[in-house]
Specification:
The protein is 37% helix and 22% strand. It is α/β, with parallel strands linked by helices. It has one domain: P-loop containing nucleotide triphosphate hydrolases (Rossmann fold), CATH 3.40.50.300.
Length: 254
């Protein structure tokens, strides 16, 4: 029977690597250039939120960082990364516990060991009592928690989150933003968070990177020096949101 790491070992890798380094990266799809001369650095343990207009190459950036694609020019280097896509992609026939434990099974753990490792973390993430629930029996926010936990248990030091709360209503989204901030405080990672919500970017990120319309490149990099927990009505948050929107507007007008 296979053995598996303890929950702490499985979900909290060391953050002493290189983080993410993207230098003058270009990625083309036929005649379409998705990103061009894009540069972005994320230090180990840092959370960088990426905002930009639709079609500017935000998801392409995540694919490059995760190694799912290669740049046509430039370089991309990152510690091992796990991707959480826009849709939760939970297995509909599997329980919440088995969905969360899937990365451990894929790494060779038996079902019992994988469940034993995932169960305590599931409880920490507010899902105690829902271990046996199927995805169809969970709320949208609960499904996203399971998907995020599954991403954590992949054991990668870098998390690439692609619009993780885009499908949720405003109330659920605000709740999940607070939950994610708390989760990352408990389980630090190097995070690249793509979002279309500028306020969300300021609430969650240590920095906000603003991308131009396609072909995407970083046109503004704003540091968020606001203590956590953050609230949307904080004047510093409001001011940073306005600066990010101004950067977006300037590019849209260019």
């Amino acid at each position: 029977m296979h053995s598996t790491p303890s929950p702490a070992t499985a979900s909290a890798p060391a953050l002493d690597g290189q983080g993410i380094r993207v230098e003058a990266a270009t990625r083309r799809y036929g005649a379409v250039t998705a990103v061009e001369d894009l540069s972005l650095a994320v230090s180990p343990g840092e959370v960088v939120a990426v905002v930009g207009p639709s079609g500017c190459g935000k998801s392409t950036l995540l694919s490059l960082v995760c190694g799912l694609e290669r740049p046509d020019a430039g370089t991309v280097a990152a510690d091992p990364a796990a991707l959480m896509p826009q849709r939760d992609l939970l297995l509909p026939w599997a329980s919440a516990l088995d969905n969360a434990a899937l990365p451990l099974r894929l790494r060779g753990a038996g079902r019992r060991e994988a469940r034993a490792a995932a169960a305590p973390v599931l409880a920490e993430f507010g899902l105690a009592g829902f271990e046996r629930a199927r995805p169809g029996e969970l709320s949208g926010g609960m499904r996203q928690r399971v998907a995020f936990l599954r991403t954590l248990l992949a054991g990668k030091p870098v998390l690439c989150l692609d619009e993780p709360f885009g499908a949720l209503d405003a109330i659920a989204r605000a709740e999940m933003q607070r939950w994610l901030a708390d989760a990352l405080a408990r389980e630090p990672r190097t995070v690249l968070l793509v979002t279309h919500d500028v306020e969300e970017a300021v609430l969650l990120g240590d920095r906000v990177a603003v991308m131009s319309p396609r072909p995407g490149r970083v046109v503004a990099d704003l540091r968020v020096d606001v203590p956590r927990p953050r609230v949307a009505t904080d004047p510093a948050v409001v001011e940073l949101r306005a600066r990010a929107l101004a950067a977006l507007g300037g590019e849209a007008a260019a």
